[in-house]
Amino acid sequence: MNPISNVWNHPKTSAAGLLIAVVTIARVLSQQGVTLGAAGTGTVVSLVCAIATAFLGLLARDPGGETSSAGSTAKLGAWALIALLLPLPAAGCSGVTVAQDIVNWTPALQSAVATVDSTAALLAPQDAPIFTAATIGFDAASNLLTAQAKAYLANPTASALAQMQTQVVTFQQQVNAALLQAAKIVDPASQQHAQAAIQAVATIATAILALVQSISSKAQVARMAAQSTIKLAAVRPLLDCSQAAGIVARHYGEPVELARIQVAQAEYAQAQAGF
Q: Model-level pTM?
């Protein structure tokens, strides 16, 4: 078959193949330490990979496009899904870059925790004590994690990294436990307020965990996962993907669709690692 006419007759499949090739090459380059320069807090290679992945996700969800059989459409969606579920490249991201990114999350984290602190006043009288007891450790845990990120940024040693690894898991576990407790609130309005406030913190905790995971060895990640007793699978049904994507999109100044893919990839990578 003439390759040019094939591209013309099957533009959607050809575009998907091209995007998958771009993602694959970008990941190989990243794994080899080829960055092609900086782009914000990341690299040009990682940016290209993220953009190609985002377009691939949009293409897989597009119901229109070329005329094809149900089988070929299903295959296109499957290939796109496989590419989307592959973890984003972590190579090329130094510990200092990650620590700075965690520090950059500080304002959003402090704001989310402050919202949690004020949410009890919005709940029904019988629900407020449950919520307060579930979230009482957020302030101390978030402040300690931020302090450790700043310490690691100033002096990126193995000891400082180990402390940050332990604290991010501790914080994530506190948030997961709070989500499970909030789900027990009976009053619908109280439960909605409680879960929305906690999820804002949960989204940032997940983002920070993904950052720390990206600079940790397999053995270190395995140790972190072993410390995670409340798994992501237990709280995922309680999470609002749209809210999480909105938080990430605002933080990085990027499209919500791209943020949605990044959130899904981070959760997938964490679930695969045993969190």
A: 0.68
